[in-house]
């Protein structure tokens, strides 16, 4: 430590003079002898000259060392010049200066008591010299030091030049300070810039990561959606085949086989549930799920749920209680999805409750905008730590009971996602051992109404009987026919005029038509020609029953048989059976790349009623459609060459095939766009998993019927 | 621009340095003086440094230079009035002032100059011979 007396800046040549004068003044104030003052001033002069000449300036600092006696006057001359390259040579006296006498540094070292030089090339040089204070008895008091400093600063300028020099010094000091601050600011600025760059880089990185995550998430959703589809196709086949087995279509099974088959079915259905849940989650996540709000009453929802969940109530020690809703208004929201959430909650509650009850309640919020369903059980409960992740996918709480009950680990996450989709939320309250209560909160009125783009649901027509359409103006004859055919499996529909007959044909396709020729004011021959000349009706056998005998004309126009009234019952029945069996089969083309799918579809179709043609890809399908002109086409969407969409477009573009009804039969879960697209040109969309024999039969009938309605030949004109 | 005054005093030039010179001033003094020697045909120069509190290597070199230049211009130089402390410092510093004659004060300085000039005159009188000798050889 040392006490600084004064610091001088060296900027101009005059400063050299000032520096050595100050050096002399300071040393005199410190009590150096005249001779020593001269030596000190000379040394300072030498060093400052070097600083000025070689580094265009620098600084001189005068200080007094703090060390124990004797104290030392220390003078530090520093510059920021290029440094001294041949310092060793200079110190060894081997260097000759061009400006001085090559004595500056060496001479100074001789003149002073201490000498230290530090020079870094490119950074500058610092020379510190020192001289012990003379005859010192006590250290200089701080006050004395301050007095010296004050005197130096206040020293009256003796000439205008000196004053200018002093002011100049002042200015230089200020400038130096400003420069120092500016440097500091620049350094800070640089630091900030670097930080900023870092922040920008960090942001970019975050962006990239977010994008990456987004992509991963999309890929996951896509994967789930695609994979689920891939899983579903074989699963549907398994289930459908198992159903066929269980329906004993190809012979009966032994009891043991029956049991095995039912296990196969159970497992396949479990797996199918899992895949469906996965697919649901993927759909919700990818935003493909559409909300279809309807207005419904909670009490209706509860009764539906009660019915649906009854099969799960296998444990007699557990009661499922639905509390009758009190003052809950009608809800306008997606009933199916709310029902799905509640089903998940309830089946979950039933799984984890061994004894007691599962209680389902509903409550409207005070402002009337929300409704909260709660499902409370008296089961094992969920520990606090597990409650956080229970709504995460595939998370299952470890427990003894958990191992016994089946579950996909997807029910609760799906419920959560569905609730969020509907503008609601799910949460739970639970403590281990005391049971859990799951809550689901939904808005009573969904703010938006989405256009219903659901798959067209085909009404289920139950009975599959043969129908006879009797076109006859005589009502007595109607009664006779009805009597004749009662209990024979033939269902009688009557029409008094051709107009009425057309009306019936709009609604149903009869298996046989009995036509009277002599109808008042009608051209029945024309009608027969229309029926037989083309369109969807040409395959319906027509039996002409008339009082006039014009058999040749009738048969020529396409009638399948002709008889002259009166008609005997036995003859009629025999005729009908024959005609029915002789009836030309409706031709159905199945375009599907999977042999199993084609097989299942074929098995599902009513036996003996159709001629089935198969095509294993889109190209063959199109060719066969052109060649055979089938009455109906079943089309798969996902095929190796063309997609079902392309095949459908091509079919609809060809005049020969554009009127053939196409039923889309697929396992693909389609988004609303695709469904809308299909609904425009396909007759119906059928999920492969929905296939059942009875339903298939009715649908096929129904679609054939719809097509007949559209067929030109029978338009009323 | 400040200048160190150079006075003509008989056949000598008198320079009295009364202020602490910065280096440029010292250099300009050097120039002015040589010019003055040529202009006045002065035979001797007296430099009074009695006011100088320090003589560092630069001023020392300047004094040396002045002496050498004057000699070339046929003038002799004597530095007078050097303070003892300065002298000591010069020695300690290692300043070699071989070419510079010194005198304690102005009077002795003038005496020294005159005696030197006399000596020079007698030397120069013999000089041509020796020059001839050398040419003969």
Explain this structure to me?
The complex is a heterodimer of chains A (717) and B (137). The termini of chain A are far apart. With 717 residues, chain A is of the alpha/beta class. Chain A is built from 22 helices and 22 strands. The longest helix of chain A has 87 residues, at 160-246. Residues 448-464 and 708-717 of chain A have low confidence and may be disordered. Chain A has 5 domains: 2-157, Histidine kinase-like ATPase, C-terminal domain (Heat Shock Protein 90, 2-Layer Sandwich), CATH 3.30.565; 204-286, Orthogonal Bundle (Helix Hairpins), CATH 1.10.287.130; 294-457, 2-Layer Sandwich (Heat Shock Protein 90); 466-580, Response regulator (Rossmann fold); 586-711, Response regulator (Rossmann fold, 3-Layer(aba) Sandwich), CATH 3.40.50.2300. In chain A, helix 6 (160-246) runs antiparallel to helix 7 (255-285), helix 6 (160-246) crosses helix 18 and helix 7 (255-285) crosses helix 12 (411-421). A 5-stranded mixed β-sheet of chain B has the order 1-2-3-4-5, sandwiched between helices. Chain B is an alpha/beta fold. In chain B, 36% of the residues are buried. In chain B, helix 1 links the parallel strand 2 and strand 3. Chain B has a single domain (6-119), classed as STAS domain (Transcription Regulator spoIIAA, 2-Layer Sandwich), CATH 3.30.750.24. Helices cover 55% and strands 16% of the residues of chain B. Chain B starts with 5 loop residues before the first strand and ends with a helix. In chain B, helix 1 runs parallel beside helix 2. Chain B is globular, with a radius of gyration of 16 Å. The longest helix of chain B is centred in the last third of the chain and has 31 residues, at 106-136. The model of chain B is unreliable at 129-137 (pLDDT under 50). Chain B contains 4 helices and 5 strands.
């Amino acid at each position: 430590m040392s006490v600084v007396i004064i610091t001088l800046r060296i900027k101009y040549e005059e400063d050299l003079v000032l520096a050595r004068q100050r050096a002399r003044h300071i040393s005199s104030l410190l009590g150096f002898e005249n001779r020593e003052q001269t030596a000190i001033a000379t040394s300072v002069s030498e060093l400052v000259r070097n600083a000025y000449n070689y580094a265009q300036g620098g600084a001189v600092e005068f200080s007094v060392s703090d060390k124990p006696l004797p104290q030392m006057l220390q003078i530090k001359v520093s510059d920021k010049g290029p440094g001294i390259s041949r310092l060793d040579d200079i110190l060894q006296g081997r260097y000759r200066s061009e400006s001085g006498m090559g004595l500056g540094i060496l001479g100074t070292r001789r003149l002073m008591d201490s000498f230290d030089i530090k020079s870094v090339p490119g950074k500058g040089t610092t020379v510190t010299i020192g001289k012990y204070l003379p005859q010192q008895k006590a250290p200089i008091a701080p006050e004395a030091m301050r007095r010296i400093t004050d005197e130096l600063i206040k020293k009256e300028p003796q000439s205008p030049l000196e004053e200018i020099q002093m002011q100049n010094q002042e200015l230089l000091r200020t400038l130096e300070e400003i420069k120092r601050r500016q440097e500091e600011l620049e350094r800070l600025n640089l630091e900030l810039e670097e930080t900023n760059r870092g922040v920008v880089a960090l942001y970019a990185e975050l962006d990239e990561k977010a994008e990456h995550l987004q992509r991963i998430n999309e890929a996951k959703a896509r994967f789930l959606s695609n994979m689920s589809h891939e899983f579903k196709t074989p699963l549907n086949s398994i289930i459908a085949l198992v159903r066929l087995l269980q329906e004993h279509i190809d012979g009966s099974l032994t009891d043991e086989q029956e049991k095995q088959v039912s296990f196969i079915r159970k497992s396949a259905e479990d797996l199918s549930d899992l895949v469906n849940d996965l697919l649901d989650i993927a759909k919700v996540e990818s935003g493909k799920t559409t909300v279809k709000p309807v207005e419904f009453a909670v009490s209706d929802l509860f009764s539906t749920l009660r019915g649906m969940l009854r099969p799960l109530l296998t444990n007699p020690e557990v009661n499922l209680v639905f509390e009758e809703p009190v003052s809950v208004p009608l809800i306008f929201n997606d009933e199916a999805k709310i029902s799905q959430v509640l089903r998940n909650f309830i089946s979950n509650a039933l799984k984890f409750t061994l004894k007691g009850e599962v209680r389902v309640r509903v409550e409207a919020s005070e402002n009337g905008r929300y409704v909260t369903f709660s499902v409370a059980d008296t089961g094992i409960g969920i520990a606090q730590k597990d409650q956080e992740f229970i709504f995460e996918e595939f998370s299952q709480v470890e427990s003894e009971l958990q191992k016994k009950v089946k579950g996909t680990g997807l029910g609760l996450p799906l419920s959560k996602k569905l609730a969020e989709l509907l503008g609601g939320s799910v949460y739970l309250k639970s403590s281990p051992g005391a049971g859990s209560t799951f809550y689901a909160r939904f808005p009573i009125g969904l703010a938006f109404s989405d256009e219903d783009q659901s798959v067209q649901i085909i009404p289920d027509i139950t009975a599959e009987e043969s129908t006879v359409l009797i076109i006859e103006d005589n009502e007595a004859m109607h009664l006779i026919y009805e009597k004749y055919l009662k209990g024979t499996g033939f269902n009688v529909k009557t029409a008094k005029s051709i107009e009425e007959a057309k009306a019936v044909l709009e609604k149903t396709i009869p298996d046989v038509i009995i036509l009277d020729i002599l109808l008042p004011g009608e051209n029945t021959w024309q009608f027969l020609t229309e029926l037989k000349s083309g369109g969807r009706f040409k395959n319906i056998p027509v039996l002409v029953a008339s009082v006039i005998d014009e058999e040749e004309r009738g048969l020529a126009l396409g009638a399948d048989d002709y008889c002259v009234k009166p008609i005997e019952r036995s003859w009629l029945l025999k005729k009908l059976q024959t005609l029915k069996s002789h009836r030309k089969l409706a031709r159905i083309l199945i375009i599907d790349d999977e042999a199993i799918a084609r097989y299942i579809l074929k098995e599902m179709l009513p036996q003996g009623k159709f001629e089935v043609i198969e095509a294993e890809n889109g190209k063959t399908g199109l060719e066969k459609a052109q060649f055979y002109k089938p009455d109906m086409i079943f089309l798969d969407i996902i095929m190796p060459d063309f997609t079902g969409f392309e095949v459908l477009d091509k079919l609809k573009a060809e005049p020969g095939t554009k009127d053939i009804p196409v039923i889309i039969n697929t396992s693909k879960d389609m988004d609303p766009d695709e469904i809308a697209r299909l609904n425009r040109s396909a007759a119906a969309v059928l999920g492969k998993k929905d296939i059942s024999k009875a339903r298939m039969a009715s649908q096929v009938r129904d679609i054939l019927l719809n097509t007949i309605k559209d067929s030109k030949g029978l338009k009323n004109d | 621009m400040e200048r160190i005054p150079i006075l003509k005093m008989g056949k000598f030039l008198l320079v009295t340095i009364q202020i602490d010179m910065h280096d440029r001033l010292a250099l300009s003094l050097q120039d002015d003086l040589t010019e003055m020697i040529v202009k006045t045909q002065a035979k001797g120069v007296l430099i009074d440094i009695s006011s100088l509190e320090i003589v560092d290597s630069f001023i020392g070199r300047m004094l040396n230079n002045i002496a050498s230049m004057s000699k070339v211009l046929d003038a002799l130089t004597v530095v007078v009035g050097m303070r003892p402390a300065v002298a000591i410092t010069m020695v300690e510093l290692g300043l070699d002032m071989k070419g510079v004659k010194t005198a304690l004060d102005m009077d002795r300085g003038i005496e020294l100059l005159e005696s030197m000039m006399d000596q020079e005159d007698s030397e120069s009188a013999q000089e041509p011979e020796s020059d001839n000798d050398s040419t003969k050889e």
